[in-house]
Amino acid sequence: MHSIIYSEEFSTTEVIKLYLQEYEDMEVFVAETSEKAYKLAQNDNTILIIDLSQEKSQKLDLITKIQTNFPNTKVLALSDNPSVNLIIDIMRAGAKEFLPIPIIKNEFTEAVNKLISNNNSTIEKSNCKIITVYSNKGGIGKTSLATNLALELAKITKENVALIDLNFQTGDITTFLDLKPSFNISYMLENLDKINETFLLSTLERYKRTSLYVLADPPYFKQADTIKPNLIGKLFDILKETFSYIIVDAEAGFDGKSISALDNSDMILLVTVANLPALRNTQRCLELFEKLGYDKDKTQIVINRYIENDEIKAEDVEKVLSKKIYWKIPNNYFAIMSAINKGIPVSDINSSTNVAQSYRELAKYISDNLYKQNMQQTYENILQKGV
Fold first, then answer.
1. Which end of the chain, N or C, is more open, meaning fewer C-beta atoms within 10 Å of its C-beta?
2. CA neighbours within 13 Å on the CB side: how many for 162?
3. What are the two backbone dihedrals, phi and then psi, of residue 88, each rounded to the nearest 5 degrees?
4. pLDDT truncated to tens, each residue of the chain (387 aa)?
5. pLDDT digits over 277-294, tens only?
6. Checking DSSP bridges between strand 129-134 and strand 267-272, what pairing results, if any?
7. How far apart (Å, rounded) are the C-alpha atoms in residues 373 and 126?
8. Backbone phi, psi, residue 76, to 5°
9. Domain extent listing, the chain
10. Are 132 and 267 in contact (CB under 8 A)?
11. CA distance to 144, 281, 286, 293, 323, per residue, from 272 (Å)
């Protein structure tokens, strides 16, 4: 086993070397530069212990580069000034363990042992979040939002993301991504007792080389009739064991299956556009959600095809709905239609377009907020241990 120590602080390096002496088969190297750390990380069976007290951005980039090119190298990150945001960035970069400085021996030993045994749990994945993209009016663009959001979440978090098409009669996700899946949601619901992680990751349609997995709508109308609303919740419970995010493209309307999906969601992105008919429909949705007992923060307003300085402005929308706008997706007809017609995400058409950037920033905004919520307790525990 090799270990690499990369820290500008002499005392930190010496303490780590002292602790590592107790591992008989551990060969210890000290890297003075990122270039040397990267070169040493190419060896198999290696642990990189990296101090982010200085040059955080450069070292986060180094962790990302190492994890991309040498995924078998395990990373233990350190910092003398830990924060929730830093821990989130470290986790995204690919580190498996984090410890505050000054380093406590038993905590260091525990972290290293976990890395050696491949049992990484100090930096935990976020609990699975179910996000349903909904509108009770067709033609609003919710499928584009659900598809592009799911893909950007997979790219940003590098965690498993499930994209579920609950448009049982007219689902379009497979068309939007040019997929021809062998299995669909009807099959899954008929075989809930057989589903496990291995089954899901091998049967759900994976989008190219990403961590996005698609569960398609039934290919035949009659199959939708056999799907009972209570099965939706059971399917979500099973998917939670494998996926960090479940993005649901819900059918427009208020049938039992749609309500079941909404009930089981942690977050509802209620999609609308800035015109009066759409806003009236959005008002009705909000009124229904209130009657269903949903917390006000559960539902967030997304304005699609937003045009700055349009006749109906953002503040007008907020006044009509009595609710703040969560996100605005800019209008870019040509980029969206080109992506749909080619069966690829908008970012694959041109990642620098305003709409592609908006999807990417929305995914980051959502994941950042969820990470902050889920990491707060971890962060507090780390600080308590460091006291």
1. C
2. 30
3. -60, -45
4. 899 999 999 999 999 999 999 998 899 999 999 999 999 999 888 999 999 999 999 999 999 999 889 988 999 999 998 887 888 888 888 888 899 999 999 999 999 998 988 644 444 445 789 999 999 888 899 999 999 999 999 998 888 999 999 887 677 898 899 988 877 777 777 778 777 788 788 778 899 989 999 988 766 555 556 677 888 888 899 999 899 999 999 988 888 888 999 999 999 999 999 999 999 999 999 999 999 999 999 999 999 999 998 899 999 999 999 999 999 999 999 999 999 999 999 999 999 999 999 999 999 999 888 777 666 655 566 556 554
5. 999 999 999 999 999 999
6. parallel
7. 9
8. -110, 115
9. 2-123, 129-374
10. yes
11. 13, 9, 12, 21, 13
Tens-place pLDDT, residues 32-80: 999 999 999 998 889 999 999 999 999 999 999 998 899 889 999 999 9
Check: pTM over 0.90? Answer yes or no.
no
Cβ neighbours, 10 Å, residue 238: 17
CA distances from 304 to 139, 143, 315, 358 (A): 11, 11, 15, 11
Q: Rounded CA gap, 74 and 210, in Å?
A: 21
Residues 6+ apart with CB under 8 A from 241: 128, 197
Q: 141 is written with which tokens?
A: 């663009």
- Residue length of the chain: 387
**DSSP single-letter state for residue 194:** G
Q: Residue 272 forms beta bridges with which residues?
A: 303
Map residue 268 onto helix, strand or coil: strand
| Three-class DSSP labels, 126-161 | CCCEEEEEECCCCCCCHHHHHHHHHHHHHHHHCCCE
Q: 2-123 and 129-374 share one CATH topology?
A: yes
Helix, strand, coil in percent for the chain, rounding step 5: 50, 20, 35
Give the whole-angstrom CA distance, residue 236 versus residue 257.
12
- 């990484």: which residue's tokens? 120
CATH of 2-123, one of 3.40.50.740, 3.10.20.90, 3.40.1210.10, 3.40.50.2300: 3.40.50.2300
